[in-house]
């Protein structure tokens, strides 16, 4: 597994611990996701993370990754994947999507607030990049 992919979960958790959404572009840059098809690689990795979270009964860590344009929410693929995983049954936009996103973020923030410390070392012993401020 590439180093950027190993660092993704700890990076998302660091963002969530800081209660700070992060844009797709920020994730691509912070983790140095290689091209071509950077966004496709990131999307696939976020979807895999979502599947892992659903299987473990955890909040969706990918919820902290949002679009840079208003409304500040994940892109449609997040909601499509949440539907495919049986976690969400609503539309990609609008009040229902906003409420679902807010619930996932709140649950994630609560879960990680109960977890001591920041992101741990990855499998190579390196730490995940801190979320940019």
Q: Which blocks of ≥5 consecutive residues have pLDDT under 50?
A: 118-130
The neighbouring-strand order within the major sheet is 1-2
SSE order, as H and E? HEHHEHH
Number of strands: 2
* Shape, per Cα inertia axes: globular
Residue fraction in strands: under 5%
The end-to-end span amounts to: 28 Å
Which class best fits the helix and strand makeup? mainly alpha
Percent helix among the residues?
Answer: 40-55%
- Gyration radius, in Å: 14 Å
Largest sheet: 2 strands, parallel
How many separate helices? Answer: 5
Mean pLDDT equals 88
Question: Please, could you describe this protein's structure?
Answer:
This protein has helices at 3-17, 24-31, 38-55, 76-84, 95-113, and strands at residues 22-23, 65-66. The chain has 133 residues and is mainly α. It has a two-stranded parallel sheet. The two termini are 28 Å apart.
Short description:
The chain has five helices and two strands. Strands 1-2 form a two-stranded parallel sheet. The longest helix has 19 residues.
Which descriptors apply to this entry?
133 residues; mainly alpha; 5 helices; 2 strands; 52% helix; globular
List the helices and strands and how they pair.
Elements: H1 3-17, E1 22-23, H2 24-31, H3 38-55, E2 65-66, H4 76-84, H5 95-113
Parallel strand pairs: 1-2
Helix pairs in contact: 3-4
């Amino acid at each position: 597994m590439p180093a950027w992919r190993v660092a993704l979960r700890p990076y998302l958790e660091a963002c969530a611990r800081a209660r700070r959404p992060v844009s797709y572009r920020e994730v691509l840059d912070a983790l140095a996701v290689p091209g071509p098809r950077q966004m496709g690689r990131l999307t696939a990795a976020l979807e895999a993370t979502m599947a892992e979270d659903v299987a473990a009964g955890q909040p969706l860590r990918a919820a902290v990754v949002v679009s840079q344009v208003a409304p500040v929410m994940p892109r449609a693929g997040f909601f499509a994947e949440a539907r495919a995983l049986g976690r969400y049954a609503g539309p990609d936009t609008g009040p229902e999507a906003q409420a679902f996103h807010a619930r996932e973020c709140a649950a994630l923030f609560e879960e990680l607030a109960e977890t001591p410390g920041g992101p741990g070392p990855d499998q190579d012993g390196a730490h995940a990049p801190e979320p940019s401020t």
